[in-house]
């Protein structure tokens, strides 16, 4: 009976991760197809970015709210709802024949993605309460959540070149249906804690408005007009004011949407800060690294996807086979640090790639180090982020860590892309060749990305504390050492 239960939980884990993979893939699979979509539907150069931005605004803006709703009304219910919305919106994207329809469908798709992905990590830690099996399950989840972006580049290139851009959306329909059928049978229903004392509608409006406006400010005026532009500063100030109002509301509400006590956990707060900094560096590097391969080395879409494949393979091997052993043996904080060091080293090494660089010499080592670091760091980060949350707040913690990743990624991409473009313009004005100017811009971005990860290392050293599992192991280790010493003395 116990073996049957364990098998059911393992299959349920794979179903949840399949749903997560579908969501993560969609965040990057579109990037490769953008030029074809522009030609086919007649997007202008300025409006094309909204194919990506519409998704990011809904996805990042609703993530925290979706996670908390899962705690209140049941995570399975929210997961199934999000899966249905995402699948139907994917179908609408695939059949879109005009820019307006595609952008609107992408916004709805982002909302469905937020509902689906926000509760998955909370469901996993509830499903696997024992530390060792939980660490292993989180390792599988972290691999899917982290490596899905690079897999999306490869899948986008294959589908766009082999069939058409419509199939980057159509492929979600059978996957979504199969995932929903399996989830309905395998996932245990949970009722949630309910709306005791009423629903915090003002808090929900404030946090959703703050995050959506913040993501919009990052991906639109900041990226296009610059960080010092009046529109950027105004919208940024309004977003921060809404966030402050939300914090005040949660501190005084009788039944807050986000209980602020959750941030008393040093590991939870520290893990989210580290997540934001490290993802900001890595996400921008994935994007700019792909541009370096395309614009400087002349790679096509499929070659770019294959170039990132070593990162995915190394990350998957560590996350699935070894991360739980390392987290269980040494603790999440101790496992996290060498991972962050490896990521910082890979980004710094990428900043040395020359104009006439070769893949084996200048790119492959970067991809291996990046996969090694991500395979160690992100499972440990997920463990730390969830360890400080009560079971009734697992959805909130899950939504929080995903929100941190999305906002950090959007902010990192906007900052690194802007600084890279400015550096390229300066070098071009100085008389450098187009390839040399582009490479110089990418070098600056990679070094700043490495600096962000170094800042994450500083936060980890200053804030994180040994996990409860590690603290339990340390007295046992001291007891074993004392017993051995007594034995030797006798």
UniProtKB/TrEMBL annotation:
Residues 471-490 are annotated as: Disordered. Residues 471-481 have a biased composition (Basic and acidic residues). Residues 12-468 form the Major facilitator superfamily (MFS) profile domain. GO terms for cellular component: plasma membrane. The chain crosses the membrane at residues 12-37, 43-66, 78-97, 103-126, 138-159, 165-187, 199-219, 225-248, 269-293, 299-318, 330-352, 364-387, 399-421, 441-464. SUPFAM superfamilies: MFS general substrate transporter. The keyword Iron does not apply. One of its GO terms (molecular function) is transmembrane transporter activity. It comes from the Bacteria. Keywords: Cell membrane, Membrane, Transmembrane, Transmembrane helix, Transport. Signal peptide: none annotated. It is found in: Cell membrane. Pfam families: MFS_1. It is a multi-pass membrane protein. NCBIfam families: efflux_EmrB (TIGR00711). This is Drug resistance transporter, EmrB/QacA subfamily. It comes from Conexibacter woesei (strain DSM 14684 / CCUG 47730 / CIP 108061 / JCM 11494 / NBRC 100937 / ID131577). The lineage of its organism: Bacteria, Bacillati, Actinomycetota, Thermoleophilia, Solirubrobacterales.
